[in-house]
């Protein structure tokens, strides 16, 4: 049996490092089952540590490591779920690449594949913006053991150009075709979006702890806190009879109102959404178009501009948990117009029982 290198110990079938290098205790798995491969890994790690501790060089960290730190430090951000989704999408392309080697050209394959998959330019640019934020932190905030930045200069990752897409509200007939092709959980989320105007991530992240009782009323509302609201301002979400009926079917099942086997959904625009769009002949419709449809239907029902702005969360700070009962009741009455037959017949969503 060959004698192993000092500092390597075999645990089960895997070789592990247990060694002190330049004053640094190195305790980690090599991930290797063969001694020769484990020795090469040990040599690599030993040289990295000596380069930093003895020669003052900088360890060139992978984007995967930088992304993990970004997520850990950004947990409070209202857009963190969207950022995580973007990082998951880009990781197969640049996850193992060191941050110093990433530039606009490195992401060409990612952009090409996303466009080929039918992902819109705006979505791809939001993904690229998250990558840029991670790399800027590498250059401006994060330092190694010797006080040097993880990255000297962040690369410029320009936005890609594309045709600006106009809103595409859907009709009741299109709505019925769409939801009929969906699994129940997604159909319920779509109908809830059409009755509340909430965004994709607001619906996916909606928790029962966000529900609040309105003093002196039988109704409840949901509160979108400033941490989760896109514009950073807290607002309430009044529910009509259809929205209440939908969520009541999910009570007691999970911390999240909408879920899949008890777990939070990453997004509504998933494979089931895309398949339903295709079968329904609505491939040009996005999840965000449900929000446009909500606003259009409110207008058709005669809801005035101020109330529509409040319901869509566009008014800076007008709707808060301290809003009066009368004003909240008015907004509930506004969304009830979408289901009690008082809006124009061609725009009536569902008649409440």
Q: What is the level 1 CATH name of the largest domain? A: Mainly Alpha
Strand content: 5-15%
Number of helices: 13
CATH topology of the largest domain: hpI Integrase, Chain A
How does CATH name the architecture of the largest domain? Orthogonal Bundle
Describe this protein's structure.
By secondary structure, the chain is mainly alpha-helical. It folds into three domains: 8-53, no CATH class; 63-140; 172-347, hpI Integrase, Chain A. 43% of the residues lie in helices and 8% in strands. The chain contains 13 helices and six strands. The protein has helices at residues 35-53, 63-73, 80-94, 108-116, 121-140, 172-180, 184-196, 200-204, 241-248, 271-280, 288-300, 305-312, 325-336, and strands spanning 8-11, 14-21, 24-29, 211-213, 220-224, 235-238. The strands form two sheets. A three-stranded antiparallel sheet has the order 1-2-3, covered by helices on one side. Strands 4-5-6 form a three-stranded antiparallel sheet. Strand 2 and strand 3 form a beta hairpin. It is elongated and about 80 Å long. The model is unreliable at 316-321 and 341-353 (pLDDT under 50).
Task: Give a quick set of tags describing it.
elongated, hpI Integrase, Chain A, mainly alpha, three-stranded antiparallel sheet, 353 residues, single chain, 6 strands, disordered C terminus
Topology summary:
Elements: E1 8-11, E2 14-21, E3 24-29, H1 35-53, H2 63-73, H3 80-94, H4 108-116, H5 121-140, H6 172-180, H7 184-196, H8 200-204, E4 211-213, E5 220-224, E6 235-238, H9 241-248, H10 271-280, H11 288-300, H12 305-312, H13 325-336
Antiparallel strand pairs: 1-2, 2-3, 4-5, 5-6
